[in-house]
Amino acid sequence: HAFDKAQKGGFTIVILDTAGRSQLDDTLMDELQAITRRVQPAEILLVVDAMIGQEAVNIAKGFKENIDLSGLILTKMDGDARGGAAISIRSVTGVPIKFLGTGEALDALETYDPSRLSSRILGMGDMLGLIERAEANLDEEVARKQAEKMMAGDFTLEDFAEQLRQVRKMGPIGQLLEMLPGGMGQMARSVSPQDAEQQLKMTEAIVNSMTVKERRNPDILNASRRRRIATGSGTQVQDVNRLMKQFRDMQRIFKTMKKSGKRGLPRMFGM
Hints:
The protein is of the alpha/beta class and 271 residues long. It contains 15 helices and four strands.
């Protein structure tokens, strides 16, 4: 009925989503073959859970033997499995991988790129994917203004809070850490995604518990104010102090950038 309605309505794309199966059975195959004969789809995509390893290969092989698959979608690529199953599935079935699922949101479906997946499998990160995600989710005007403030050495806690909100838009912190390359990625991945997410939430809570005046002028944060902020954010005074130290360190870096310009950047990082 849905297919007939789509034809009458003049829709150019119709997606038929059949019931998922973790195991093969004759009833499922008969149903899929009947649907294929009825609608004659241009594409038949099999969605495979990358977390189930070799079983995913077996399922894909079984489907290929019964249905003329045109492509694969690997899901849960944001999990612990880095996608070794992808190579096996492609080799065994000969069916191309077309998309990777890295989360629950609509924008967490990305076009498959073999070079980028191999980098993830080898722990080399995916900077291109990170850049694409930033371009898709970050406000370009906000990012430009913040960059100008950084270079001018005029970075406040309000700007810091806005940065946290921008990072949130890009997706779960665990996914972002996985995309970082080389030593930077190894260092980031030494912290569990859960701990990183918890730290980010705590930082947001602390900053949000400050008044606008305090965010714009952190110098006024005396012991009394810090106790109030800790109570309001459900944290300890030590957590507030630690955040302020990190913020001061960031400010010093930005001021050094302002004084040194681009020529001073290599010296700042020991290059």
